[in-house]
TrEMBL record:
<dbReference type="GO" id="GO:0006412">
    <property type="term" value="P:translation"/>
</dbReference>
<comment type="subunit">
    <text>Homodimer. Interacts with SepRS.</text>
</comment>
<feature type="binding site">
    <location>
        <begin position="213"/>
        <end position="215"/>
    </location>
    <ligand>
        <name>pyridoxal 5'-phosphate</name>
    </ligand>
</feature>
<dbReference type="InterPro" id="IPR015421">
    <property type="entry name" value="PyrdxlP-dep_Trfase_major"/>
</dbReference>
<keyword id="KW-0663">Pyridoxal phosphate</keyword>
<comment type="similarity">
    <text>Belongs to the SepCysS family.</text>
</comment>
<keyword id="KW-0808">Transferase</keyword>
<dbReference type="Pfam" id="PF05889">
    <property type="entry name" value="SepSecS"/>
</dbReference>
<keyword id="KW-0648">Protein biosynthesis</keyword>
<feature type="binding site">
    <location>
        <begin position="85"/>
        <end position="86"/>
    </location>
    <ligand>
        <name>pyridoxal 5'-phosphate</name>
    </ligand>
</feature>
<dbReference type="InterPro" id="IPR015424">
    <property type="entry name" value="PyrdxlP-dep_Trfase"/>
</dbReference>
<dbReference type="InterPro" id="IPR008829">
    <property type="entry name" value="SepSecS/SepCysS"/>
</dbReference>
<feature type="modified residue" description="N6-(pyridoxal phosphate)lysine">
    <location>
        <position position="216"/>
    </location>
</feature>
<dbReference type="GO" id="GO:0043766">
    <property type="term" value="F:Sep-tRNA:Cys-tRNA synthase activity"/>
</dbReference>
<protein>
    <recommendedName>
        <fullName>O-phospho-L-seryl-tRNA:Cys-tRNA synthase</fullName>
        <ecNumber>2.5.1.73</ecNumber>
    </recommendedName>
</protein>
<dbReference type="InterPro" id="IPR015422">
    <property type="entry name" value="PyrdxlP-dep_Trfase_small"/>
</dbReference>
<comment type="function">
    <text>Converts O-phospho-L-seryl-tRNA(Cys) (Sep-tRNA(Cys)) to L-cysteinyl-tRNA(Cys) (Cys-tRNA(Cys)).</text>
</comment>
Length: 395
């Protein structure tokens, strides 16, 4: 079907079960879709902007209140919406990182964290993962000490992914934050895979910043996200402008430097706000999401030669699977080669896995129903059996 302008309408969501690893938590709610239509104009949220002229002072729609709600949602004191998690990283790095400063990241940090550090002139140092692909506090302590000795001063900032994008593993955030604070290093929690899908309490984790991605995990249009912090750090990261133009003497005092004055407007912000009540509710059902993911995991691990590379038992719905000794063996002789798997899944109405991937791949069951999880599990078993792989039912 075509809509005006010659753009094909997207059929992935309506026609299929989508287990794409990165899309799961960002799918819009019906309320967000309505908001997108009604607030499509670029400056649609600015109708009632009045003194002081800044996005987070607008009361209608209730943006000021939304910021407060976002902060409370992740157990912090203040929050702002930002155009994607990466812009949150950039704001924090822009505040604390100067040229040549050492910054701690991890072996599982997302590339956007590296870019935020590089953009600010910092030097990234990675904390290694252990054999189970977990970032541990011991390793963090060792690396912080090493970097401190080398530079003659501690790192200026530490990034830790609450759940990483490669394995969907949960890391030792609370313990790492404690270690970092012993060296007075502020801690940024990357909640791109947690804020909006599972409960997150930044204060209880002891971090200084909590960053979420709207389009990844808060059922919001892209690019959207949030940056929350403590009252103390808010003064630094949400600082307002200080300098004057030398010719006109103009100042822009109320505008926040790292937010470039105002942040999200129109569709992104209103979509995020419209989904928020649903998001607040859905994080309470995280255990059900884990159960659904285990239905698919049990099926996959019952296929001879298949292994899960993420931590087990699963504590997140994003999982990395190794089928190099099962589906990839089939691919060696199949006429469709590695594409046989994605093609067989597509025929059964399941999409979102990388076409051609039969060695190591990821999937995410977040947001599908229990019946759909059972259907996906059965589909993998059928495809295995149809291709001569033996299946031993889970105990
Ligand atoms: C772990 C992780 N962190 C950060 C990001 C960046 O998020 P955003 O697209 O909201 O900037 C992504 C996704 O691209 C991610 O997977």
């Amino acid at each position: 079907m075509k809509c005006t302008g010659g753009i094909d309408l997207r059929d992935v969501e309506e026609m299929n079960i989508n287990i794409d690893p990165i899309q799961a938590g960002g799918r819009l709610t019906a309320d967000a879709m309505k908001a997108v239509i009604s607030y499509g104009d670029g400056y649609s949220v600015c109708d009632n902007c009045g003194k002081p002229f800044r996005l987070d002072y607008i009361n209608k729609p209730p943006i000021a209140e939304f910021h407060e709600d976002l902060a409370a949602f992740v157990g912090m004191d203040q929050a702002r919406v930002v155009p994607g998690a990466r812009r949150g990283f950039q704001a924090v790095a822009g505040t604390y990182v100067g040229k040549g400063d050492p910054v701690m990241l991890t072996a599982l940090s997302h590339y956007t964290e590296f870019i935020a550090v590089e953009n600010a002139g910092g030097i990234p140092h990675e904390i290694p993962k252990d054999a189970q692909n977990i970032i541990r506090a011991d390793a963090a302590a060792e690396r912080i000490e090493e970097v401190t000795r080398t530079f003659g001063r501690p790192p200026v900032l530490l990034f830790i992914d609450h759940v990483d994008y490669q394995f969907g593993n949960i890391h030792e955030v609370r313990e790492i934050a404690r270690v970092a604070h012993d060296y007075d290093v502020p801690v940024l929690l990357n909640g791109a895979y947690t804020v909006g899908i599972m409960p997150v309490d930044g204060k209880s984790l002891g971090v200084d910043f909590v960053i979420g991605s709207g389009h990844k995990s808060m059922a919001a249009p892209a690019p959207s996200g949030m940056l929350a912090t403590t009252s103390e750090r808010a003064e630094e990261v949400f600082r307002t402008t200080q300098v004057k133009g030398d010719l006109t003497g103009r100042t822009f005092g109320i505008k926040e430097v790292e937010m470039m004055g105002c942040t999200l407007m129109g569709v992104t912000l209103m979509g995020m706000m419209a989904s928020f009540p649903h998001v607040q509710e859905r994080v309470k059902r995280w255990d059900e999401e884990i159960e659904k993911s285990r239905i698919v995991i049990d099926a996959l691990t019952s296929i001879e030669g298949t292994a899960v590379r993420s931590e087990m038992p699963r504590r997140h719905t994003l999982t990395r699977v190794d089928t190099s000794r099962s589906f990839d063996r089939v691919a060696e002789t199949h006429k469709k080669r590695g594409f046989f798997l994605s093609s067989a899944l597509k025929k059964k109405g399941i999409v979102g896995v990388i076409p051609g991937a039969t060695k190591v791949w990821k999937f995410n069951t977040y947001g599908i129903t229990r019946a759909q999880a059972e259907y996906v599990a059965a589909a993998y078993l059928e495809i295995a059996e149809e291709n001569g792989l033996s299946v031993s039912p889970a105990e």
